[in-house]
Every structure is written in structure tokens, then in C-alpha cells.
Amino acid sequence: AAKTAGRNAIRFFDPMMQAAVSARAALENDLRTALSAGQFLLHYQIQVGCGVRPVGAEALIRWQHPERGMVPPYEFIPLAEETGLILPIGLWVLQTACAQLRRWQGNPATEQLQLSVNVSARQFRQPDFMEQIRTVLLQTGARPDRLKLELTESLALDNVDDTITKMNALRALGLRFSLDDFGTGQSSLSYLTRLPLDQLKIDQSFVRNIGIQHTDALIVQTIIGMAQSLGIDVIAEGVETDAQRAFLEKHGCTLFQGYLFSRPVPIGVLEQYLQARAASV
Ligand code: C2E
Ligand code: MG
Ligand code: MG
Ligand code: MG
């Protein structure tokens, strides 16, 4: 026991560890004020069908930190989830995305587009999540059938009965659901088929390896086949090359998202592209 305590004592004064702990504390501190300071914004990444026809976009949060510059989501979303700050942040994302959807309505270049929003487990599990969505839709006037929620496999299968109940209630309002990062979790096929999904989203790790790793190309084909047998859409994320797009299309995937088409961009950049495209067709 003395030996263990000694090791811990040494660790406690480890300067590297100390630095990491205080860096995290500083980030957490900044994260607490980021929302009220207006430091978050959404970027939008276009989603296209065959022939590069725009079908929608995914809203992706960005944190414009006054000293650190743009902080990527992987640096603060896990922290926001641990601290519970994801609840107000997630609500802000929904409000901002729905306000954007409302602005797209009534314009032929944008009114057909769907907007996908990422939802964290903690956010989805709130007892009043359904009420929050309903309020946001009412406040913004966004069409519910243009809003798509992206859930991960682990979220969806963590408490599958609660998930299905919530999804069905939200679908009754008109919302759509996509299963994000699909293929990376350990989902049981039987549970998966119970989920009332509209779309599977093939994780970018498989898409990246299409021409490199034969097993990943097979996984991609399997996921496309699963979506087809379930009668739902399938979209590939992280499409970077024309060869990847061609492989996906050849195997029946008709929806794409990735740097090949566009990076996530500020709303003005996306809208300029959409208007220019609408004017040219
Ligand atoms: P995700 O939902 O799977 O989003 C896709 C990520 O892949 C985005 O990273 C996007 O910028 C990136 N990406 C898109 N196309 C390509 C490509 O062709 N190549 C490569 N290498 N990357 C590509 P981002 O924006 O850094 O977001 C990372 C993750 O953070 C998201 O993964 C999502 O899980 C989370 N996230 C982002 N915004 C939100 C949000 O508003 N709420 C919640 N809860 N999570 C969010
Ligand atoms: Mg996503
Ligand atoms: Mg994803
Ligand atoms: Mg991902």
C-alpha cells in the first residue's frame, strides 16, 4: 500500500501531468463562458446526390476562441459532454440550425434542402428533449421534415427501447434520423433493424480505405446492401476522391458528403454556391 501511495504521490507532482490537468481546467473554464460570449458558430458541409445535385447539408459546430483561434470539435465536444455543457450548447445548435432552415424556405434554390444536426447522447436522453425540439420548431418556423438528427450507434443502442420511443415521437412530428459513423460500433443487427431510421451514414474510416483495404471496401458494400434491404437511404461521409465516389456509386450509394465536393464552410459560402448553381441549371 505504501508503495502504491508513493507512486501516486510521484504522479501527482509529475509536471507533465500537472500541465495537462491545468490546461484542461483552463479549457473547461473558457467553455463555460463561450456560449454567452457568442463564440460558437456553425459551418455547413454540403451533401449531394448523383450528378452533384445538392440535397442538404450537415451543420458542424465551431468554437472561435479569442486566443486559441478555431478550436475543433474533437477538442471540446467530449469536455462539453462530461461537464453537461453540451445541453445548452446542443440547444443553441438546434436553434441556430432551425433558424437557418427557416431562411431556406420559400427560396427555390434552397427550400428542398435537408439540414442534419449532430445530437449527443446526453442531449437525446433529456426527458424533455422532445419538448425542446417542438419549441425550437415553433419559435423558428422551420419545417420539421427538413430537419434530420444524426445519432451514433452507441447512443441509439445504449437504451434501445427509450431510443425507439423517442425516435417515433419525433418522427410523428416529421423529423428524420440518420445513424452517424455507421460501422464503427458493435451494433447487433437485430437491434439495428428495430430502429426507425431514414438513413445510414457510412463512416469515413471505411470510405478512406476503399481502394486500399479490401475488407473495408467489402464493409462499404455490406452497409449499402443493408440500407437497401432495410429500404432506407445510405450516405457516405469523408468522400475525398473521384475513385471513392465511383466505387460507392457503382455499388448503389447515391448520396455523398466529403472534401471532394466541399469542406464545411460558413453559411455565406454555401449559399453563394447554391444560388450560383440554381442560376446555371
Ligand atoms: P461527424 O458528425 O462524423 O462529422 C463529420 C466530420 O468529418 C466533420 O469533422 C467533417 O469536417 C469531417 N469531414 C467531412 N468530410 C471530410 C473528408 O472528406 N475528409 C476528412 N478527413 N474529414 C471530413 P468536424 O467538423 O471536425 O466534427 C467532428 C465531430 O464532432 C463530428 O463528427 C461530430 O461527432 C462532432 N460534432 C460536430 N458538430 C457537432 C454538434 O453540433 N453537436 C455535437 N454533439 N457534435 C458535433
Ligand atoms: Mg455527423
Ligand atoms: Mg460521421
Ligand atoms: Mg465521424
From TrEMBL:
User: Which part of the chain is the EAL domain?
Assistant: 24-278
**Lineage: superkingdom:** Bacteria
Q: What is this protein called?
A: EAL domain-containing protein
Location of this fragment in the whole protein: 902 to 1182 of 1182
